[in-house]
Amino acid sequence: MFCKTKTHTLFYHNKARTISSLKVVWRKDPTLDRAIEYDKRYKQCARVVKEVLNEPGQGIPLRYLEKRRERMRLKVKAETFINQNPGLFDVYYSRIKPKTEPVRFIRPSDRLHCFLQEEQRIFSENEPFIVSKLCKLLMMSKNKFISADKLLHVKREFGFPNDFLVDLVPRYPQYFRLTGSPGEGKSFLELVDWNPEFAKSVIEKRAEEESDRLGIRVRPNFNVELPPGFVLKKEMREWVRDWLELDYVSPYQDVSHLDQASREMEKRSVGVFHELLSLSLHKRIPVPILGKFCDDYRFSNAFSTTFTRHSGIFYLSLKGGIETAVLREAYRGEELIDRDPLLRIKDKFVELLEEGWRQRKEQLMLKQERIKEDMELLATKVGE
């Protein structure tokens, strides 16, 4: 679907020189692609669970679930999925209408209910952290408010609870004001008060920690580490060197005075992307989702070229037919280094899934052993 190489062209002007066309070649990073691939099965299971939990009474006829396969992007039959993932749901018989024949329904299993209770506990423990994340998203925005529908759309990327707008937000009137009704397209979440403690980026905090450790002032800047085998052309190396020498522009800083095409604005945009990816659960976000916030965060229409242009900071994955921006420094190989505390929810869900997969594997092995024993017994009888 995608070619193996991809180039983006830069057009920048500064007082020292004019850079008219610097081409940056996109390179595949199999290690970071594997990190994305690893989550596919987990995400598929989460989509089906969400579908069932959203049903009245949290129960649904199996044949109705089958009709929603395309919407859930489920590649196997619903019945096959249930069999492949034991422990998620219980199968039972009930009537769709009073006088109809009983049909198979599914509902959350006891194990899934236990996980959901654990999920709520983890959300409660990390509520101050979630509040700070939400404040940061608003503080980086142009007008300090964002469409509620957009925020609902990215709740999974940042680890927000499903009901955060109607449950969490009203408990913090000192920070948030919600206008309109979410889901109607005219609802907005507004920042009420600016908390300076939240207005420090990951990069600024890192520089402060380094300064304290070394006893000398360390300038905030980006970590740049090119992937193995990736070599920049001389003119591009010079451009990156000069660009890194520019002062860091905080994503929480007012940049209304900056020219959209300036190198300073580029520095600020990279800072915003770095901060957004740092705030996300997996330190990566699909590019189409970031594109929904172009106006809110002053991104240019061609913002996705930033991820290829700064290949030592980001990786633009094409895995699964969708562009995903990945923060390089957040990974060691395919493993996350600094894990978001809300990822404990995913870990618990994966434990539930893996327990079911082990159970299924053991049952299949026992079945194969019985078949083998029956075949041997049959062969013995025939030999007699």
UniProtKB/TrEMBL annotation:
Species: Vigna angularis var. angularis
User: What InterPro entries does the record tag this protein with?
Assistant: PORR_domain, PORR_fam
Q: What is the lineage of its organism?
A: Eukaryota, Viridiplantae, Streptophyta, Embryophyta, Tracheophyta
**Pfam families given in the database record:** PORR (PF11955)
| Domain PORR per the UniProt entry, residue ranges | 28-357
Q: Where is the signal peptide?
A: none
Q: This protein is called what?
A: PORR domain-containing protein
Q: GO: which molecular function terms?
A: RNA binding
